[in-house]
Amino acid sequence: MPSSIGSATRAAFVTYPLSHDHTLEKRMGIVALMLMLLFALTSPLLAHDFKAGDIDIAHPWSRATPQGAKVAAGYLTLKNSGSLPDRLVAVSAEIAGKAEIHEMAVDDKGVMTMRPLAGGVEIPAGGEVELKPGGLHLMFMSITRGAKEGEKLKGTLTFEKAGTIEVEFDVQAMGGGAGAQSGHSAHGG
User: By Cβ atoms counted within 10 A, which residue in 51, 109, 142, 184 is the most buried?
Assistant: First the structure.
């Protein structure tokens, strides 16, 4: 700024952005409002939920697989808002030659067992079932290609009452989490 401008003019010039009803508090309020609107408008885009009849399917996900893996696992939460129980009876995945609903448990001797649930898994009326590492999960077998972090894998869930719905499994980083702690990571979980 030229030195010929008086100090009063310089002060007005420097504070101009905060004048004209644009106090710092108002600007912060506008920024906060814009952030809330941005979050409100984008959260449906970020949501990874699906619905089939009375069944809400929350955040289907899988882990990235190491090169050469022949199996992977899928996880999600099923919430039944209906007045009658329903049952997840079948599953498929675009990368799997075969997919099953599995249960993993550790017996009283500390031996881990895993088995397919031929009858599927019941979701009680008004209840919720979480398929997670170290417990109930979806098993993707004879996979035709690996799952890469950041991609979405297409799959299908079939319910006894709610019918069939297509979902996408969000592929997350390999390792870590409850699966690595339980020893379940050996088959993709």
Answer: 184
